[in-house]
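for ur thesis appendix - SdpI/YhfL protein family protein. copy paste whatever u need, i formatted it the way the template wanted (i think)
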Amino acid sequence: MDRVVWLMLTIPIGIFFICFGIYAWKRKKPMWFWSGKEVKESEISDIPAYNRANGIMWLCFSAIFWLAAVLGALNSEAAGIVIVIGSVAGIPLLYLVYRKIYSKYKSK
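the 3d part is after this line
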């Protein structure tokens, strides 16, 4: 039963981040970061490339939850470790990656 609950938690979260990544990738206006702060079109030199990079960032972050879903079916302790380490390290890493993306595509 624990494994079913684990899958019911991790799979929707993984799907959410995949959908968020696809949305970012296909968006016509510049994608914002998680906080929802709007990024103006005048701030970004190449909007499609900027959004593609944002989308890839979120798709990569979803991998933590997909890995945890697979591990959860086999070993719930290992899956929990992946979620904790992936989130504790992943969230600050998301911010750093986003700052790098923003800097790369920022209009000069």
